[in-house]
Amino acid sequence: MPGMRILLVRHGQAVEEAPGLGDAGRWLTQRGRKVTRKVARWLGKSGKRRPARIWTSPLVRAVETAEILAAEVGHRGEVEACAELSPGRDPGDLIRRLSIASADGPLALVGHEPSLSLIAAALLGDAGFSGLKKSGVMGIAWEEGVGELWFVLDPAVMKADKRLPPPPPPAPAEEPGAPSDP
């Protein structure tokens, strides 16, 4: 796989509220740390998947996910906070940074949904991807501005697929006059 290999990594499960800290201060739950460690060990089992560089959103839950990833794969470099991975940023900002980046192996990008899906769409084209699960990973081979899906890892079953999962079925339309469910 020539070119750059990119690992889009969604942060692990986090607490719903961080009183006094706001959304940016939410930290990983015990379960979030456990599942993230399992995913990180899976990535580290293969040199082809083991990150050579790790960029992360500066939000606490993403930084914790990135630090767990670094520890589990034996990453010796810095975990780099990357403002372009913050929620709500334009994916084009990150793509511009990627276009001048270099890595001797996969580059892990730890972030949030729906931002990671927007980044995936910018790298792969609109492939109808419905998003990563918490602690999920999407591998993309990216060369000269063109991306190709490498794999998608579902952390619930620890199974990587070389195809995108089908989008969820559309919600049924409500009938006019039907009682609503609050």
Description:
There is one protein chain. With 182 residues, the protein is an alpha/beta fold. The protein has one domain (4-161): 3-Layer(aba) Sandwich (Rossmann fold), CATH 3.40.50. Helix content is 27%, strand content 21%. The protein is built from four helices and seven strands; from the N terminus they run βαβαβαβαβββ. It has helices spanning 30-44, 60-73, 91-100, 115-124; strands at 4-10, 53-56, 79-81, 107-111, 137-143, 146-154, 159-161. It has a seven-stranded mixed beta sheet, with helices on both faces. Strand 2, helix 2 (60-73) and strand 3 form a beta-alpha-beta unit. Helix 1 packs across helix 2 and helix 3 packs across helix 4 (115-124). The chain is globular and about 45 Å long. It starts with a strand and ends in a 21-residue tail after the last strand.
Mean pLDDT: 89
The topology string of helices and strands comes to EHEHEHEHEEE
**Rg from Cα:** 17 Å
Total number of distinct structural domains: 1
Q: CATH architecture, please?
A: 3-Layer(aba) Sandwich
- Into which percentage range does the β-strand content fall? 15-25%
Task: Sum up the overall morphology in one term.
Answer: globular
Main sheet?
7 strands, mixed
The main sheet orders its strands as: 3-2-4-1-5-6-7
Tally the beta strands.
7
The CATH topology assignment is: Rossmann fold
How far do the termini sit from each other? Answer: 50 Å
Question: CATH class, anyone?
Answer: Alpha Beta
Low-confidence sequence ranges = none
Please bin the fraction of helical residues.
25-40%
CATH 4th-level superfamily: Phosphoglycerate mutase-like
Indicate the structural class. alpha/beta
Count of helices?
A: 4
